[in-house]
Amino acid sequence: MGSTPDKALRKRLRERVKHVVVDEYQDVNPIQEAVVKALSDLGAKLCVVGDDDQVLYQWRGSEVQNIFTFKERYPPVKQIRLEDNFRSSKGVVETARPFIEQNTERLSKKMVHKDAQTYEAGDIVALPFDDPDAEAHFIAATCKKLLGVAIKDGGGKKRGIAWSDMAVLLRSVARNGEPIIRALQDANTPFLVVGMKSLFRTPEADAARALFYFMAGRADCTEAIVRRAWKMAKTGAPVSKIKAAVAIAARARADMLQDVKRYSVYSPQRVFLDFLENAGIREEKVPGDPEHGQILFYNLGKFSQLISDFEAIHFHSKPSDKYYAFAKFLENQAEGAYPEGWQDSQYANPNAVRIMTVHQAKGMQWPAVFVPALMRNRFPAAAIGGRNVWHLIPESGVRGYARYRGTLEDERRLFYVAMTRAQKFLYMTWAPIEDNQRFRKPSTFWENVQKSAFVKCSLPNYSKRKRLPPQAKAGVSKVILSFSDIKYFGVDPIVWTA
Fold it and tell me: What is d(CA 476, CA 347) in angstroms, rounded to the nearest whole number?
């Protein structure tokens, strides 16, 4: 009896699945590979696309050997090399290629530039600085100097670089991002930190947190405190409307304690969105440059996503219990609940400089990329080969356990990905941390790239570069909404059944 459903499923899959296409095949883990193999064994034609030079997720189970041994495991195989680079300038390509060719375990290939951007002397630099603050000041000053510099866009057209054309990629934002954040703030440069780790550094997220402390009935968070927090967020909403919105939230809290069964009415997401609506908070009303409004709403969107993540787990909790648990989550867990490499949903594209980890930048590109904090023991990471995560599961219990430790070649792949995110401008810098003996010397990677003829070791001068009005590149985001998300936004979802 036990084998009958399996036979029926195999028969159905054999009849229905004729072709399987796997993108980013180098990041497939053993379980995913088992699914691919099973479908292939059932007769499906298989096509995989991947680049072994861009394996970034071995620490969470991806197995690069899958792509190395593909030809032997799935014969006969036709291999097509996709070697043309339509993203980066000759300088970026010719700097990155010899760097990654130092790896001994890689498939034979050669990246070839296709003049996507014109290389000019000074586009790529490797510079040392006296300390992280000086390094951060250079980044902030260079961002301002790049604003409006002409670059080629799609179709060969030219436009001026905008803030959103610049990215700062770090091995660890948590450990090395603070000086850069301060420098961009001091320079009044719009920026955002991708991911959740720094969300509660923003006054708008702090105000949202205060609202839910109030909804949970905390004695230390009164209506006056909530009003003050939203005033500090500088949303541009009138004080009178904020006061009215807080009063409405107070009535909802009182009603919730009497009407415990109407879960959707007292959903934290609904309360949050109703509050923004009742307070009249609008992106176009946020004071200052337009970028300020975009970033503020980007952060409010991240807070909304945090609510959705929480409610997905606590969906069936009684409303008063849910608010109590959510307040505790915001107070004690939210800031550390998301790993540093976690990528938030890119539904919006504010015109702002990005600060993010290299892992988060996978698959993206920018005309200008900064890769700072290139210190020995940071990039490559000091823990290579020595990280002990086997206190619960013995190494012998996991096939290929070495991939979870990471190697120098893994770190080299990560740096290669960082460099090849750049379309034209690439800045690789380092500075010693005086009070830490582990971070007093430059990375070997930083020393390696100086061998390239395209890398300059002097401050760039862009005063004679052609300039155009800064124009952010238009982007279209794929927005994925669940049934619950649609309901939150006040649209009655329609369910189709076959």
Answer: 8
Q: How confident is the model at residue 86, as a pLDDT?
A: 86
Which residues are bridge partners to 158 per DSSP? 152
Residue 466 Cα distances to 92, 116, 121, 147, 156, angstroms: 20, 17, 14, 11, 15
Q: What is the largest CA-CA distance in the chain?
A: 78
DSSP string across 123-156 = SEEEEE-SSHHHHHHHHHHHHHHHTTBEEE-GGG
Where do the structural domains in the chain lie, given as residue ranges? Answer: 4-80, 90-191+344-449, 199-337
C-alpha count within 13 angstroms, C-beta hemisphere, residue 266: 27
pLDDT of residue 41: 93
Report the pLDDT value the prediction gives residue 136, as an integer from 0 to 100: 98
Residue 284 is classified by DSSP as G
Residues 237 and 276: beta-carbon distance below 8 Å: no
State residue 458 phi and psi, 5-degree precision.
-135, 160
Sign of CA dihedral 290, 292, 298, 304: negative
| Of 304, 303, 326, 323, nearest in space to 203 by CA | 303
Cα-flanking dihedrals φ and ψ of residue 91, to 5°?
Answer: -60, -45
Superfamily of domain 4-80, CATH level 4 = P-loop containing nucleotide triphosphate hydrolases (3.40.50.300)
Which segment, 84-88, 140-144, 338-342, is predicted with the most confidence on average? 140-144
Q: Please, where are the H alpha helices in 333-469?
A: 402-405, 408-419, 444-449
Residue 284's nearest CA partner among 297, 271, 265, 269 is 297
pLDDT in tens, 436-481: 888 889 999 999 999 999 999 999 999 999 999 999 886 555 555 5
Which CATH architecture fits 90-191+344-449? 3-Layer(aba) Sandwich (3.40)
- C-alpha 364/C-alpha 412 separation (Å) is 18
Domains 4-80 and 90-191+344-449 share a fold: yes
Residue 366 backbone phi and psi in degrees, to 5: -145, 150
